[in-house]
Design goal:
This protein is mainly α. Helices cover about 40% and strands about 5% of the residues. The chain has a domain of about 40 residues. The protein has a two-stranded antiparallel ribbon.
Length: about 100
Amino acid sequence: MKEVTIDVLKEASRRLLFEMGEEELKTLLEEFRILARQMEALGQGEGLDAFEPMTFPFPCETSYLRKDEPAPVLEREEALRNAGSVLDGRVKLPRVVQ
């Protein structure tokens, strides 16, 4: 696992397009250190190898999902009928990334 440092946190926040102050970064770094110690303590429990890793704590049944069956496709005009703004036969959305 990559060591979490102030520089790693700065790079992560830059990639997520938000800024963090030095105090916030120090607090977040300490939180990561606490979390790492907690994970290490959990990993030291006896007999853990006897259990299969879980991604969710409860059995999850998916039998209630509907069958994926083909259905008629809407015509473009019908699909765009309720769109707030249309440009060149497509739904026009506001710009979200600058």
